[in-house]
Amino acid sequence: MKNLLASIVALALSASVAFAHDFTVGTLEVHHPASKATLPGQPVGGGFMSIANKGAEADRLVSITAPDVSDDVQIHEMAIENDVMKMRQLPDGIEIPAGATVELKSGGLHVMFMKIKHPFKEGESFKATLNFENAGALDVDFTIGSAKPGNATDAEGGANHEGHGG
């Protein structure tokens, strides 16, 4: 019985560490930075998360670096223009309004890791630094989930990033 209880406690602790995927800098809270597994030879990977601003002033995500996986990380937006879905880089970053939460997900705002150095493998993770205009730098870990649409890292069902070939 003692071993069973010890095993349950150990499992609970390891699960809480595995699911503790939130990061904070200043008044900003970054929840669940995630990516999806890539196929061999796929030149890009996407990044998703939510950013909550608990402060009284807006901030801005101005850049992201992830030198272990890409030397070119971009902030993108997907939008419908004249009935055509287009993706464009946001060189000025993303505003995080005071008291609001901004979602980075497929089909909208997201991160693009261009010319990735190696495939993203399900179950692995990688480090990145989010750079905010006011709050400063925040080191985070992106968890890599399944490439399948609708997985836990991407509730929106996946985006086609073929046009980002590089």
TrEMBL record:
UniProt keyword list: Signal
Any coiled-coil regions, as ranges: none
Entry keyword DNA damage: no
Tree of life domain: Bacteria
InterPro entries: LpqE-like, Lxx211020-like, PCuAC_sf
SUPFAM superfamilies: DR1885-like metal-binding protein
Signal peptide residues on this chain, from the entry's feature table: 1-20
Record protein name field: Copper chaperone PCu(A)C
Source organism of the structure: Shinella curvata
